[in-house]
């Protein structure tokens, strides 16, 4: 492990920049040294953090694995409503871990310092709030709330308890996003005016048709507890449990699940507190398997001028039956360049700046004038603008790659546990998490209610 970490750290400081002197090596060296200290720090018994994961589905197992890459972290308990996942947890993490189908058993234990809340979306906020009041640090999967109405109460719980609370949108810890933010703040792309961001998928698994175990039944699944906080109760349905993302009662659809990744990254880079108007459209075009959320959704989101940034608009899209295959893209567009963060692993900044002179000819009315007038215009133009003014500046692209083996989920957990140990602020607190989640949930409201949703990004409330 130490050898792998050292190899990674060496790569970090030397291979991340391919072109551009915009990022000096100094910042990389400082970050490099900081990482060496963190990775090689000897963890004393007093520094050991004992964790439990509530919800051992896809994200539960992945989050637990990422958490355990951090030195001094120990998994002591796991909770899930499907018995098979509790058995699997013991197979993977050892027979000595405590397992239960009742999350209260986890929260009532005094030997657990932090919990990962990786349940279906409808349980994120209730469990997180109770955990904070029980004295636990909380890592909550995104979106941190199932309904907009839950957000301020969760923020209040964190403020009252002073608990360490972090939302699990790992882009906020990603080194590529940090570097993109540095360049954005340095004015590399001029003034922002638009963002285009999307996820495209083309597979059953990508569209959330997850594998269902052969023994799935009311005898192996805690169905009553699962839907205990749902207004409408349904008879047992394996799809609703194992493919919960497809149902509004338990999940938040493509907006809450994937738009929230996009907005988290956008808000992190721009420093934005959020939009003031949201409108979305969509439909169920292909995956007609009983789900009650769209498989294609597009949103137009308006960001007002603020102390953090000029006014801009963002267009978001998720397509679960896209002919371009699996692809993710975020393009932050400014007056002098574009930050293109496509398919992860880094970014490219394409820079383009208009010449001082406006130009003439081409698709222009110039050619419609008499020859004498054209000559006079050219003569006057050349007197007014130098040859340099008439040329667009040549500007090289900036290309940035993450070091080989880098993982932003591991980094996100490292930041979470570092906050627990040092008391420094988390990288994605409740306010940031809610400001990313609420506009996404408003996309759902806009889609189902066919109206523009107005939002107060500072006060974090519907208007």
Automatic annotation (TrEMBL):
InterPro entries named in the record: Gfo/Idh/MocA-like_OxRdtase_N, Gfo/Idh/MocA_oxidrdct_glycsds, GFO_IDH_MocA-like_dom, NAD(P)-bd_dom_sf
Keywords associated with the record: Oxidoreductase
Top-rank taxon, per record: Bacteria
Entries under Pfam families matching the protein: GFO_IDH_MocA, GFO_IDH_MocA_C3
SUPFAM superfamilies assigned to the protein according to its UniProt record, in alphabetical order: Glyceraldehyde-3-phosphate dehydrogenase-like, C-terminal domain, NAD(P)-binding Rossmann-fold domains
Residue intervals of the GFO/IDH/MocA-like oxidoreductase domain: 236-339
Gfo/Idh/MocA-like oxidoreductase N-terminal domain segment(s): 49-168
Record protein name field: Dehydrogenase
